[in-house]
Each structure stands twice: as structure tokens, then as C-alpha cells.
């Protein structure tokens, strides 16, 4: 039976370290968070961020904008936060309304305040192995893998999902560790090749958003399985991997919920504290 790869345990260690680092700063770090509208998952994420920030001595300033805010108004708002020297980091919660171009907003945030690591300059630095701000989910997955003690050098790692926030940055971070990385996506599934890739994965990371996409019997014996997916099924939250059968074959597996999720906010706070340290030095 697999051991559970729980985000909370790693997150607690990161938060403990952050508490000390925050105390050693001249001023409390300030995180500016922009929430457009009232999407329930964004609202829940904001609450979690605010609660963790306050437990670490971080000042969390929430700016709530109406659902019908125009793109130009949002741009002006971000520019004001860029110019405000008291603000160390900025996060724009997603999803944004249809009329707003997320990429345009990401490009606008000053790279040194981009604690989500979505500015093209930060993504470019990651390509050269010089990233200071790495997207929180990809970074959280690397922390989870690291906590198992695995050496990724030469390992067969299969990532399912190639989004800008998870699959693509994660593939670059894994390459830096000299893993042999395969990225699967919709075309892999359509070509009927998903199972064969999953079956040879020594490390499997799935970030799609489809309950039961990965069958438990596809998991290689002794594999490490990180299930990023969050799906609501019959009033329960489940991942993309069939947990019960996968857990019988894997060496390590993330629970859903309780795997990657609790770690992402801790990593966001670490990015903020690092930004504040650099800005205050
Ligand atoms: P996206 O919708 O942006 O990406 C999903 C990816 O899955 C796409 O690359 C898509 O490919 C691919 N895909 C879709 N269908 C298939 C299929 N049948 N076979 C293989 N690949 C497929 O989602 P995100 O990356 O933002 O999130 C993925 C999941 O992770 C969601 O459930 C989300 O809620 C969860 N998540 C959890 C986080 C956490 O902290 N725990 C943080 C971020 C996300 P294509 O685009 O080509 O269709």
C-alpha cells in the first residue's frame, strides 16, 4: 500500500521557516491581492491565502473589483500597485471575466512583484535555470517529490496536462533535475496512447481536471503519483487518478484533497517573502 504524500506536512515546514524570515525583515511584507467578481473557488482561495498570510505576519491587502470591471480599469489598478513601493508582491486571482486578457495582465505586473511567476521574464529565466519566481503549483509539486527523497536523475517522469500554470513549467523544472520527461495532453489521449505512457512512469503527475481519467491498474508498481486534479464528484472532491486501485500499486500517492493544494499557498507566501527580502536589501 502506498505511503501518503501529504502537502500539509511539507507546507508546515515551509511556514515555520517563513515565520523566522518575516521576523528578520525591516518591515512586514505586503501582498496585494486582486479579486474580480465572486467566483466561489477564487473566494475560497483568497480566504486561505489571507488566513495563512496573517499566521506568518504578512500583511494581506485584498482589493475586490466588480465583475463588470473593464480591462483598462484593471490595468490602471495593477499599474498603481506596481508603483506603490509598500507593496512587495501582487496576485491577480483567476478566473477573470471573459473581457479581460489574463496574459496581458500577467505581462503588466513588474517581474520582481510577480509572486505567481507568470510574467514572461520570469518564465524565461526558468528556461535558463535561473528562476526566482516559479509558478506555485509547479513548485509545490517539486517540493512534494523532493520530500520523498527521490533522485530524479534519469527517471522516467510522465506529466499529463500541458497548461501554462502546471504542466509546462513543471516539465522545465523536472528537466533541470535531469529527469526524462514525457508530456501527455489531449492529443495523446485521442491517439489512444495515454495508457502506454502512464504504464512506464516511475513518477506520474496528472493535472487535467477529469475524475477517473487515469485508471489504477495503469500505475507502475512502486511509482510516485502526484494527482493535481480537483473534481467534484457526488458531493466529494476527487482527483484525476482512481485513488483506491492506484494506492495498491504506487509507493507514494497524494491524497485529494490534501496533496498539492495545501502546499501551493505556502509556496506563494515563500515567493512573497523572497520578493520582500530582495526589495528591502
Ligand atoms: P487546464 O484546463 O488549463 O489544463 C488541463 C490540461 O489537461 C490541458 O493541457 C489539456 O490539454 C489536458 N487534457 C484535457 N483532457 C485530456 C485528456 N483526456 N487526456 C490528456 N490530457 C488532457 O487546467 P489546469 O492545468 O489549470 O488544472 C488542471 C487540474 O488541476 C484542474 O483540476 C485544476 O482544478 C487542478 N489544479 C489544482 C491546483 C492545486 O493547487 N491543487 C492548482 C492548479 C490546478 P489541451 O489543452 O490540449 O486540451
Mean pLDDT: 97
What is the rounded distance between the termini? 48 Å
Number of strands: 11
- CATH class category of the largest domain: Alpha Beta
Structural class: alpha/beta
List the strand order in the largest sheet.
1-11-8-7-5-6
Bound molecules: NADPH dihydro-nicotinamide-adenine-dinucleotide phosphate
Question: What does it look like?
Answer:
With 281 residues, the protein is of the alpha/beta class. 43% of the residues lie in helices and 16% in strands. It is built from eleven helices and eleven strands. The chain has helices at residues 7-23, 40-56, 71-83, 102-108, 120-127, 136-147, 167-176, 186-190, 194-199, 243-249, 261-280; strands spanning 3-4, 30-36, 59-65, 89-92, 156-160, 180-184, 203-206, 224-227, 231-233, 236-238, 252-253. The strands form three sheets. It has a six-stranded parallel beta sheet, with helices on both faces. Strands 3-2-4 form a three-stranded parallel beta sheet, sandwiched between helices. It starts with a strand and ends with a helix. Residues 137, 160-163, 165-167, 184-186, 188-189, 194, 207-210, 213, 228-230, 260-261, 264 line the site of NADPH dihydro-nicotinamide-adenine-dinucleotide phosphate (NDP). Residues 137, 160-163, 165-167, 184-186, 188-189, 194, 207-210, 213, 228-230, 260-261, 264 line the site of NADPH dihydro-nicotinamide-adenine-dinucleotide phosphate.
Amino acid at each position: 500500500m502506498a505511503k501518503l504524500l501529504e502537502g500539509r506536512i511539507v507546507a508546515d515546514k515551509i511556514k515555520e521557516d517563513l515565520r523566522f524570515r518575516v521576523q528578520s525583515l525591516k518591515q512586514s511584507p505586503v501582498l496585494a491581492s486582486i479579486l474580480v467578481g465572486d467566483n466561489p473557488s477564487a473566494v475560497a482561495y483568497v480566504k486561505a491565502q489571507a488566513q495563512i498570510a496573517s499566521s506568518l505576519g504578512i500583511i494581506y491587502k485584498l482589493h475586490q473589483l466588480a465583475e463588470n470591471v473593464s480591462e483598462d480599469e484593471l490595468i490602471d489598478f495593477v499599474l498603481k500597485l506596481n508603483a506603490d513601493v509598500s507593496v512587495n508582491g501582487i496576485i491577480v486571482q483567476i478566473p477573470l471575466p471573459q473581457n479581460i486578457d489574463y496574459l496581458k495582465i500577467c505581462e503588466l505586473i513588474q517581474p520582481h512583484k510577480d509572486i505567481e511567476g507568470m510574467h514572461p521574464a520570469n518564465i524565461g529565466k526558468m528556461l535558463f535555470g535561473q528562476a526566482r519566481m516559479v509558478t506555485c503549483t509547479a513548485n509545490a509539486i517539486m517540493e512534494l517529490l523532493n520530500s520523498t527523497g527521490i533522485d530524479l536523475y534519469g527517471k522516467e517522469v510522465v506529466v499529463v496536462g500541458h497548461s501554462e500554470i502546471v504542466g509546462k513549467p513543471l516539465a522545465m523544472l523536472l528537466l533541470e533535475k535531469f529527469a526524462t520527461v514525457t508530456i501527455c495532453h489531449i492529443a495523446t489521449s485521442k491517439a489512444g496512447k495515454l495508457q502506454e505512457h502512464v504504464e512506464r512512469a516511475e513518477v506520474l503527475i496528472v493535472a487535467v481536471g477529469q475524475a477517473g481519467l487515469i485508471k489504477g491498474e495503469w500505475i507502475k508498481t512502486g511509482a510516485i503519483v502526484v494527482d493535481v486534479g480537483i473534481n467534484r464528484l457526488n458531493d466529494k472532491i476527487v482527483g484525476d487518478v482512481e485513488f483506491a486501485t492506484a494506492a495498491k500499486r504506487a509507493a507514494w500517492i497524494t491524497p485529494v484533497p490534501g496533496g498539492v493544494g495545501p502546499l501551493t499557498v505556502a509556496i506563494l507566501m515563500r515567493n512573497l517573502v523572497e520578493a520582500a527580502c530582495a526589495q528591502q536589501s
